[in-house]
Write a structure and sequence with these properties.
This protein is α+β, with helices and mostly antiparallel strands and 183 residues long. It is built from 5 helices and 5 strands; from the N terminus they run ααβαβαβαββ. Helix 2 packs antiparallel against helix 5 (145-156) and helix 4 (108-124) packs parallel to helix 5 (145-156).
């Protein structure tokens, strides 16, 4: 029951508006900033690296029909922009190695990761010539595993200008001298 002193319910809203006084609308908040675009990725390069790693593993596991380098084979490669005379000088050991990496007794995955890191650090430090000792270690079928890994990995890198097996006094066919593109 309602007594005469209570206002009807419609008056509650009017009473409220009268009690708070005039109101003003808030300005709309600024929209949130857009999400940042994802960082660009070199997908083609990543795919090429993955393909190269797969090929390395197939070669080293013996699932590929391709025969790799043998223990006494000489590693040699030169980029098109490098003259043949530079490769001859590299073969004679006329370039001084500024750093060296020894991969003896490394497993294939460890050797691959170590070699990639070594070459990146050498490039970042402005080193022009390095020596990589891969040894003459053999896989069960007589193939030098690390030597073939080094050869294939060096061939795929854009920062490698040329490489040649070291002269006998610097490791012979168990080591390779590498000329790097400097920054």
């Amino acid at each position: 029951m309602s007594t005469g002193s209570e206002p009807p319910e419609d008056d509650d809203a009017a009473l409220f508006r009268a009690a708070i006084g005039p109101v003003r609308a808030h300005q709309a908040d600024a929209p949130p900033p857009p999400r940042p675009k994802p960082r660009a990725r070199a997908r083609m390069a990543e795919r090429d690296d993955d393909d190269a790693r797969s090929e390395f593993r197939r070669l080293l596991d013996g699932t590929s029909q391709e025969i790799g380098l043998l223990a006494g084979d000489t590693l040699r490669y030169r980029h098109d922009e490098v003259s043949p005379q530079v490769l001859k000088r590299l073969a004679r050991g006329e370039y001084a190695a500024q750093d060296e990496l020894d991969l003896h007794h490394a497993t294939v995955p460890l050797a691959e990761a170590t070699l990639r890191r070594f070459l990146a650090e050498a490039r970042d430090q402005g080193i022009a010539c390095v020596r990589i000792i891969h040894g003459k270690g053999f896989h069960a079928d007589g193939t030098p595993v690390l030597k073939n890994l080094v050869d294939r990995l060096l061939r795929q890198r854009a920062d490698v200008l040329a490489y040649h097996s070291a002269p006998a006094a610097q490791g012979g066919t168990g080591a390779v001298l590498v000329l790097l593109r400097t920054r």
